[in-house]
Amino acid sequence: MHFAPELLDQLRQARHIAVFTGAGVSAESGIPTFRDAQTGLWARFRAEDLATPEAFRRDPVTVWNWYAWRRELMRNARPNPAHDALARLERLVPRVTVITQNVDGLHARAGSSDVIELHGNIWHNLCSACGKCVMDEQLSNDTPPLCPDCGGRIRPGVVWFGEALPVAAWTRASEVLETADLFFCIGTSSLVEPAASLPRYARACGRPVIQINPEATSHDEIAQYVLRGKAGEVLPMLVAAAWPQSV
Ligand code: BV8
Q: Annotated catalytic, 119?
């Protein structure tokens, strides 16, 4: 893949790179993207219909079991070359901040040290009644497990549709836009708000936006560079092209 020399120069001169990621970054780890059709026993459900507080209130067993199925998928997944290339970038650029919509924890497992999880983390257990964080080993055998403090139903520590994003995460992500020299937008359909507005904010702040996606999205038009391809293929090539000595 050919990369514009000015893109490679901008990468090498960058002091702070922001990387906004979506489910496409984990696709090559074998984790279905959010808009992939669900498979197996979940084929008859839409993710958007299960990832809501209403669904959990109405049918906590089904929602908990859906997350248990996804956790199993993610537990067996490994960071892919896209996650690894982003972690490697930290050794080549003074500051790299990953702002992710993903809940799988794979950026941290790959070694990225500055990760903002806009939509929470599937590995966290929260009591839906008192908000207590519950360690896995404290989980009761009920489905869903019950809070050891108040007996409330335990839910995954993710942001559901209709729920506000964590204020601290959103604030940090907004601040990053003001200091980053470059803004990558990788593996996201840019359909879910308010996260999808971040690339537009970055552009409005005058930051060059670099889009990496095998398919076109609405953010192609605000991108200074559109790298059409899979993140696990494009990112390692881009890092190697900018820093040949790093491979
Ligand atoms: C909120 C956690 C308000 C759960 C998720 C305008 C403003 C504000 C809100 C809204 C608005 N319009 C609509 C809303 C409501 C809603 C929303 O956006 N709905 C959508 C469906 C229209 N937003 C919300 O409800 C948000 N909350 O606004 O609250 C509020 C304020 C105050 C007080 C109370 C309430 C909360 C949204 C968070 C929902 N939770 N996840 C879980 O995971 O179970 S979102 C979910 O979608 C995932 O996090 C996922 O990451 C995210 C976005 O999807 P993508 O990551 O983009 O994945 P997708 O499958 O769509 O696309 C994959 C892409 O990868 C594709 O482009 C594909 O081409 C590409 N790809 C594939 N393979 C590869 C690849 N790319 C690179 N390499 C590859 N190999």
A: yes
Strands (E), the chain: 16-21, 95-100, 115-117, 120-127, 154-158, 182-186, 209-213, 225-228
Q: What is the pLDDT of residue 91?
A: 97
**What's the domain range around 139?**
32-76+122-158
Nearest atom of ligand 1 to the alpha carbon of 215? 69
Go through 96-121 and write b for each residue having 16 or more CB atoms within 10 A of its CB, e for each that does not. Answer: bbbbbbbbbbbbbebebebbbbbbbb
Confidence tier at 38 by pLDDT (50, 70, 90): confident
Average pLDDT, the chain: 96
Is 106 found in the same domain as 228?
A: yes
Q: Are residues 234 and 146 in the same domain?
A: no
Tell me, yes or no, whether 47 and 152 share the same domain.
Answer: yes
Tens digit of each residue's pLDDT (9 = 90 or more) over 49-79: 999 999 999 999 999 999 999 999 999 999 9
One domain for residues 15 and 98: yes
Identify whether residues 85 and 113 lie together within a single domain. Answer: yes
- Dist. CA 137 → ligand 1 center (Å): 30
Same domain, 103 and 133: no
Q: How far is the CA of 51 from the centre of ligand 1 (A)?
A: 10
Q: Is there an atom of ligand 1 within 6 Å of 159 CB? A: yes
Residues 58 and 174 placed together within one structural domain of the fold: no
Is residue 140 classed as helix, strand or coil in its secondary structure? coil
Does the Cβ of 216 fall within 6 Å of ligand 1?
Answer: no
Whether ligand 1 lies within 6 angstroms of the CB of 191 is answered as yes
Contact 26 CB / ligand 1 (< 6 Å): no
Residues 140 and 247 in one domain: no
Query: Residue 186: what residue type?
Result: I
- Is 37 a residue whose pLDDT tops 80? no
Mutate which of 50, 121, 161 for ligand 1? The one with the most ligand atoms within 8 Å of its CB, which is 161
